[in-house]
């Protein structure tokens, strides 16, 4: 007997995603399909490099020691240049180096350096699905945006300071579907997932032009502003219509049905050009609770979806939403816009940093922290 497929109106709030569909949202899985419409990107697969176990051991260790030989040579890097110490060096002014762990990832250093060269000297890093956004504070601010890396050491420092990147290394979390956000699994399980560094050409992003788009059952239902500030220039009807038209065309012409492995439920992030008449893909995410629904809620997206698909007998054309529904922060008093706390505040500081910051100005603290990091590389 044939199994009846659910009608549109019976679709649950969240689709059930298979591990294969979630894998299809990895950058390495979609990059070749969308290469013309995404910033240039290098993928470093730790299995191919042959240093996956050593990398995970370093990442899991409690210390903040940075792998040897990872600083830019000879140009400047964000991480202060320090003298390298050979294990067992008998240098008279260091006395604790015999006990300090020494991490050595020469092939990975080389692969990152090659990627930096290929991407004009600076990259935006991700590990599997996640960028270390919660660790952005660790690198000194430059005229570029956060997470601007110019050396393997910059990258290591970010990865080591981030909680977010570990989510993409845990198979239970990585493949969770729907509403579940499981506890982290035991460390050995992490060895089973591929580990990929995604090194994207660095783009100086204007956050007002970043949007997240929601696709349910192969219908583009919603678009949300990604940044949480109010922007006057996003308010006019004309601008909003243009944003919807541009994203709808991009999706219909270049995304829909182009990468069947990800299925019919996903979200994609775009970056619009200054004229708002073209856009690049920044990322693709699974359609599930752990993907931030930003100015929508998932039940709201579900209701937009069901109303848009309802038969004419059940809804007046006036009540039927016009898709995609665009949400931007529409006043400076919007609850999302008035959040005083910095984004990812809860993830910001490892305990040792909080301790180190006591009684210091931000500048003194930054110097002290960089000093400690530099010492971490030699001790
Ligand atoms: N190539 C890039 N250059 C500079 N900044 C970037 C680049 N790609 C992304 N960003 C910035 O970093 C933010 C996060 O990027 P991205 O979506 O790739 O990370 P993510 O970890 O997948 O985020 P999320 O958890 O929200 O899905 C973007 O909103 C954008 O502001
Ligand atoms: Mg993402």
Describe the structure.
This protein has 379 residues and is of the alpha+beta class. The chain has helices spanning 19-23, 27-30, 46-49, 52-60, 106-118, 152-161, 164-167, 171-174, 237-255, 298-309, 351-357, 362-378, and strands at residues 41-45, 123-127, 196-201, 210-216, 219-225, 266-272, 279-286, 325-327. A 5-stranded mixed beta sheet has the order 7-6-4-5-8. The chain has a 3-stranded antiparallel beta sheet with strand order 1-3-2. Adenosine-5'-triphosphate is lined by residues 39, 124, 126, 130-131, 133, 145, 200-203, 205, 207, 210, 226, 269, 282-283, 285, 292.
Write out key terms for the chains shown.
379 residues, alpha+beta, five-stranded mixed beta sheet, three-stranded antiparallel beta sheet, 12 helices, binds adenosine-5'-triphosphate, binds magnesium ion
Supply Rg.
Answer: 23 Å
Structural class: alpha+beta
Shape: globular
- The percent of residues in helical segments reads 25-40%
What is the number of helices? Answer: 12
Largest sheet: 5 strands, mixed
Residue-averaged pLDDT, rounded?
Answer: 85
The beta-strand count equals 8
For the largest sheet, list the strands in their spatial order: 7-6-4-5-8
Poorly predicted runs are 80-97, 345-351
Bound molecules: adenosine-5'-triphosphate, magnesium ion
Our estimate of the beta-strand percent is: 5-15%
Order of helices and strands: HHEHHHEHHHEEEHEEHEHH
How far is the N terminus from the C terminus? 69 Å
């Amino acid at each position: 007997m044939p199994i009846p497929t659910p009608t549109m109106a019976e679709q649950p709030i969240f689709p059930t995603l298979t591990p294969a569909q979630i894998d299809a949202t990895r950058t390495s899985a979609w990059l070749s399909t969308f290469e013309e419409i995404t910033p240039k990107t290098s993928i470093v697969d730790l299995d191919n490099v042959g240093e996956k176990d050593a990398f995970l051991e370093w990442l899991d260790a409690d210390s903040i020691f940075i792998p040897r030989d990872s600083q830019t040579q000879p140009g400047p890097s964000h991480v202060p240049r320090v003298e390298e110490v050979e294990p067992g060096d008998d240098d008279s002014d260091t006395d604790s180096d015999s006990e300090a762990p020494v991490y050595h990832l020469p092939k990975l250093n080389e692969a990152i350096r090659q990627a930096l060269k290929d991407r004009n000297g600076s990259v935006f890093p991700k590990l599997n699905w996640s960028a270390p956004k919660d660790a952005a504070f660790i690198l000194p601010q430059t005229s570029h945006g956060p997470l601007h890396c110019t050396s393997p050491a910059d990258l290591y420092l970010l990865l080591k300071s981030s909680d977010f990147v570990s989510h993409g290394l845990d198979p239970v979390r990585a493949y969770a579907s729907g509403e579940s956000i499981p506890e982290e699994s035991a460390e050995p399980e992490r060895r089973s997932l591929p580990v990929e560094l995604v090194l994207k050409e660095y783009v100086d992003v204007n956050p007002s032009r970043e949007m997240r788009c929601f696709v349910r059952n192969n219908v583009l239902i919603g678009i949300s502003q990604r940044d949480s500030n109010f922007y006057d220039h996003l308010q006019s009807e004309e601008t909003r219509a243009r944003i919807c038209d541009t994203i709808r065309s991009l999706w219909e012409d270049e995304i829909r049905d182009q990468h069947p492995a990800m299925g019919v439920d996903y979200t994609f992030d775009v970056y619009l050009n200054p004229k708002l008449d073209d856009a690049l893909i920044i990322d693709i995410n699974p359609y599930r609770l752990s993907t931030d629904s930003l100015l929508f809620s998932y039940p709201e997206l579900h209701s937009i979806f069901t109303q848009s698909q309802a038969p004419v007998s059940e809804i007046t054309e006036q009540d039927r939403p016009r898709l995609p529904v665009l949400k931007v922060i529409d006043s400076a008093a919007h609850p999302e816009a008035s959040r005083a706390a910095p984004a990812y505040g809860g993830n910001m500081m490892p305990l040792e940093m909080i301790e180190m910051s006591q009684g210091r100005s931000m500048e003194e603290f930054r110097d002290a922290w960089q000093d400690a990091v530099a010492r971490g590389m030699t001790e």
